[in-house]
Amino acid sequence: MKSKVYFTKEISPKSLIKIYDALQVKLPGKVAVKISTGEPGGHNFLNPNLIKDLVKKLNGTIVECCTAYRGKRFDAKSHWKAIKDHGFLDIAPCDIMDEDGEMKIKIKKGSHMNGYNLVGSHLKNYDSMLMLSHFKGHAMGGFGGALKNMSIGVASRNGKAWIHSVGRTADPDAMWSLLNDQDGFLECMAEASSSVADFFGRKNVVYINVANRLSVDCDCDSNPSEPEMADIGIFASTDPVALDQCCHDAIINSPDKGKKSLVKRMKEKHAIHIVEHAEKIGLGSREYELISID
Fold first, then answer.
1. What is the per-residue pLDDT for 1?
2. Is 32 within 8 Å of 130 (Cβ atoms)?
3. pTM of the entire structure?
4. Which CATH class is domain 3-292?
């Protein structure tokens, strides 16, 4: 069967709740809401005023991990400042999950990373997760959506190096000389995503992608390019593979002439391979039914 992907053109706090409700899933226990808190200097990350009502509805905790690059979120102290300055502490409790270290979780199906993923140790404090992602371009992955947020985003600082280097080093400084296997990197992100979904149990994670501020650059960029295409809307699913495939397709098939740079980046980085591999290892399906809730 095709996976269901829900869609609304409206990007508002009300529509975000509406599309979550359309999934008809009640996330149990203590809910982690995984977002990107955004590199200082950047401005495309999800607006706290957009997400606050949904986070409160879930009684959720906004969660993040430190970066592998030496920016202003590389260590917990500077990351907390970014979280505060960007307004997230004003709307909900927040948690830097690798502030107190990391833990290994098993990758059940995979050919990389010796069968384990390194995630923030606080992940164990949560019972379920909303993967709330800003869908946009990415300098290394081609695009960033649910699968990137669940892999790189949940990985500890060392775990990010482990994924980027295709399981050759967990040293964030050493990884930069090991970025020579693009498909391997994309496959590692898919495999790391599957480990997080399995950690919680597949039914205890849901996924929302907000396709606005569609820059070719990620929210981890301190000086991102301005978007060249218009906002598309909000997509949601219980299947992260279908969700990212659908968002990719929405850009590829858009009549917006401003899509050119983003499409070029996705193709240059073979971005679609992350969903190809995620489907191959059983994380979800690339076949989807798009359901408008407008």
1. 84
2. yes
3. 0.98
4. alpha beta
